[in-house]
Design brief:
This protein is an alpha/beta fold and 283 residues long. It has 9 helices and 11 strands. Strands 3, 4, 5, 6, 9, 10 and 11 form a 7-stranded mixed sheet that branches. It has a two-stranded antiparallel ribbon with strand order 1-2. It has a two-stranded parallel sheet with strand order 7-8. A hairpin with a 4-residue loop joins strand 1 and strand 2. The longest helix is centred in the N-terminal third of the chain and has 25 residues. The radius of gyration is 22 Å and the shape is elongated.
Length: 283
């Protein structure tokens, strides 16, 4: 019989993309995780990972075990919750910034639902500072959003460039016209602070409370908008510095958790989010 602790480490390695990242997710050490996998390979009688200096890949036996491991862990958690009488009471209030809603959030929900089916998730999509307020006011259990000010009150998940997005075939006007989210948006705030340090002339020509709105302004060659690089999709491009707008700092995505002891379901979601961050971008 396989030990659930070993299976959990095995699954986390495959989802996080390596032993070092898995150790961070599991709050363990790389040597401990490596020892657990050696024990699991002894129990399985098979080599589970093909290791190299640059990557860790599942062997054929590892791919076979992965499906069983996820099922065993899911059934184990389901049995524990049912016996505790708490299955029907499991509810999570998750907040995410809108730039995560199109791709990152669906992947997280898909993975979480596969491991913990039946848990209710209440979603709040909004601007980062608003999510933090809700978290502090006990309106959310977990929140994930981007920050650009360098002070990250929470667990850093990943970073990526913040760029000026504009129509692929468009020509930026002089002075540049810009599209922003409403005030208190971290991308708007850092963009205006960066512009203020230069002698660049600019004008706000569009404000929208939705990602679709600022993207439409950029796609229509109406205005450039500061967006994470992963959101510069079809029809858009990242402007270069010689096109009239200054380089922007990176955006860092941060996981924040409400004060107090998290429930079992919330702890499970946190683990899923952290394990996914190692190979993640917003798109």
């Amino acid at each position: 019989m396989f030990e659930t602790e070993l299976l959990r480490s095995f699954v986390t390695i495959t989802e996080a993309g390596g032993f070092t990242r898995a150790a961070a997710v599991l709050n363990s050490t790389q040597s401990t995780v490596s020892a657990q996998i050696r024990r699991l390979e002894e129990q399985a009688g098979q080599t589970l990972f093909a290791r190299s200096t640059r990557s860790v890949q599942l062997t054929l036996a590892g791919e076979t075990l992965l499906g069983y491991a996820r099922t065993i862990l899911r059934l184990n958690e389901d049995a524990r919750l049912r016996l505790s009488g708490s299955r029907q009471d499991q509810r999570i209030r998750l907040g995410a910034s809108e730039d995560l809603a199109s791709s990152w959030l669906p992947r997280i929900l898909r993975r979480f639902a596969g491991l913990y089916p039946g848990v209710q998730v209440d979603l709040e999509i909004g601007i980062g500072p608003r999510l933090v307020q809700m978290l502090d006011g006990e309106g959310l259990d977990v929140a994930v959003s981007g920050a650009c000010d360098g002070s990250f009150d929470g667990s850093v998940l990943w970073s990526e460039p913040l760029v000026w997005a504009f129509a692929k075939q468009g020509v930026l006007s002089t002075p540049p016209q810009l599209a922003f989210f409403p005030e208190s948006c971290p991308y708007r705030d850092v963009a205006i602070r960066t512009l203020a340090k230069t002698r660049t002339e600019w004008r706000i020509s569009c404000t929208s409370s939705s990602l679709a709105g600022v993207r439409a302004a950029a796609l229509g060659s109406f205005a450039a908008s500061p967006l994470p690089q992963s959101l510069v999709g079809q029809g858009l491009r990242a402007l270069s510095e010689n096109e009239g707008l200054p380089a922007l700092p990176d955006v860092t995505y941060v996981l924040r958790v409400a004060p107090g002891e998290p429930s079992t379901a919330v702890s499970a979601l946190i683990t899923v989010i952290q394990s996914a961050s190692g190979m993640n971008t917003a798109a």
